[in-house]
Amino acid sequence: MIIDFCLGTITLKTSESEPESDVDSPADPSPDLYDFPGLTRVHLSAPAINWQPDLQGLETTILRRRSTRSYTGGSITQAQLAQILDFAYHPEHYQAQGLDAAPDYFGLDLIKTFVAISGVQGLEAGCYYYAPQSQELRQIRFKNFRAELHHLSLGQDLGRDAAAVVFQTANLAAAITAHGERAYRYLHLDAGHLGQRLNLAAMQLNLGASGIAGFFDDQVNEVLGIPVDDAVLYLTTLGVPA
Ligand SMILES: Cc1cc2nc3c(=O)[nH]c(=O)nc-3n(C[C@H](O)[C@H](O)[C@H](O)COP(=O)(O)O)c2cc1C
């Protein structure tokens, strides 16, 4: 059942009264932004995560997945971060293993991703925009944000001790103007879907992951350099489990 759902061979029915989304290509990632000359760019490249024959590893990971409750503060590798982001943002790379290459999203093109790096080998600490199409991290702030992340996540140690924190954001006003008020709800579901893929990939690599929804919304944008018109939807912390 779990694997059938992942494979897309069974789907959840939506109510007939729900309007169809008018987003053209719901699975298309957002266009790459921050394409400025002089910006530090790091191309992420790593082999796809191996989910083992018949996706046995995926089933085991789904069954054993738990939100990590604390991190050591240790570093992860750039290759591990690359694999985690690849699984979340490039489902098409997993078609050969039998996974759905284009899972249903409301509007992935409306979601932007930023990553605060505190402990990733080979990456300077700071805040990066993740360009999903070119699979690049583009550095927009240069600083170790551990202390700020601790504060921004309402004093939760998870934010401080994570090796990386992934932020999904969206311009809610623009999304609602274009697609109606339901966009608010659906964008959060999309962020949850991405968060779950980040979680599963981290678990499969024997790393830790936990979502965080408790954070100071406006301060996150200001501190990390995220556009003020964007609302932060969801945070996923990644790191070495304690
Ligand atoms: C949307 C969402 C927000 C969450 N926010 C936090 C949070 O702010 N702090 C925290 O410690 N855990 C947070 N979690 C993790 C939950 O505590 C955890 O998922 C829950 O206890 C269930 O445990 P499990 O993920 O191991 O099944 C969040 C989880 C989700 C899905």
Describe the overall structure.
It is a single chain. 32% of the residues lie in helices and 20% in strands. It is of the alpha+beta class. It has a single domain (26-239), classed as 3-Layer(aba) Sandwich (NADH Oxidase), CATH 3.40.109. The protein has a seven-stranded antiparallel β-sheet with strand order 1-6-5-3-7-9-8, with helices on both faces. Helix 3 crosses helix 7 (182-204) and helix 6 crosses helix 7 (182-204). The relative contact order is 0.20. It comes from Pseudocalidococcus azoricus BACA0444.
CATH topology: NADH Oxidase
Please tally the β strands and state the result.
9
User: What string gives the helices and strands in order?
Assistant: HEHEHEEEEHHEHHEHE
Number of helices: 8
- Cα-atom radius of gyration: 17 Å
Give the strand order of the largest sheet, numbering strands 1, 2, ... along the chain: 1-6-5-3-7-9-8
| CATH superfamily (homologous) name | NADH Oxidase
Overall residue-averaged pLDDT value: 90
Shape: globular
User: Architecture, according to CATH?
Assistant: 3-Layer(aba) Sandwich
